[in-house]
Known about the structure:
The chain has a two-stranded antiparallel ribbon with strand order 1-2. α2 (29-36) packs across α3 (40-52) and α5 (88-111) packs across α7. It starts with a helix and ends with a helix. It folds into two domains: 3-81, Arc Repressor Mutant, subunit A (Orthogonal Bundle), CATH 1.10.10.10; 87-230, GntR ligand-binding domain-like (Four Helix Bundle (Hemerythrin (Met), subunit A), Up-down Bundle). With 232 residues, it is mostly helical. It has eleven helices and two strands; from the N terminus they run αααββαααααααα. It has helices at residues 3-16, 29-36, 40-52, 71-86, 88-111, 114-125, 133-150, 154-177, 181-197, 201-225, 227-230; strands at residues 56-59, 63-66. Helices cover 75% and strands 3% of the residues.
Amino acid sequence: xxxxxxxxxxxxxxxxxxxxxxxxxxxxxxxxxxxxxxxxxxxxxxxxxxxxxxxxxxxxxxxxxxxxxxxxxxxxxxxxxxxxxxxxxxxxxxxxxxxxxxxxxxxxxxxxxxxxxxxxxxxxxxxxxxxxxxxxxxxxxxxxxxxxxxxxxxxxxxxxxxxxxxxxxxxxxxxxxxxxxxxxxxxxxxxxxxxxxxxxxxxxxxxxxxxxxxxxxxxxxxxxxxxxxxxx
Length: 232
């Protein structure tokens, strides 16, 4: 289990045990990190991840609070993490994407204009040097949407757009918890772009397979690392 995942699990357990109730303020960062046996950086990343899904509310200059949600809603918000790690639905969506996306990418390699490929390159270049997981995934969605549209098949593009939604949060979660996920994603986008620019459908499609399989592999390994949760 990644260090950030471990930190998230420990904070989650404090909430589930009632030690931190909805509306409660978290202890000071240093005190909580020491109590949980975590580095401040790991704790900070965990807080950031949990605030992203509205389990925690970070108030600038005030502190961090458990969101004032009804217990039922709070538990529902926490369960989405389990969905990523143990619900096969997300994996099924990724499997379908792994089948369709390379086909769209191969078609786009033959049909995208030079100007459209230049626009894809400019889009990748516009990403900050150190993007947040949210920025990276938003960029990823735009990149793949343009390629799907460039396939010339509106039905295929529509299917891929539908599949993108259920996997969006999983991809952000990967960026938050997997080391070097950002660098890997950027490198794989560049490889796809290279295949498109060279007008090599097979190369572009293969790069797309590798790119999507990376998320799928991460999710399968994450599930295997937390067998106890699956049995709850």
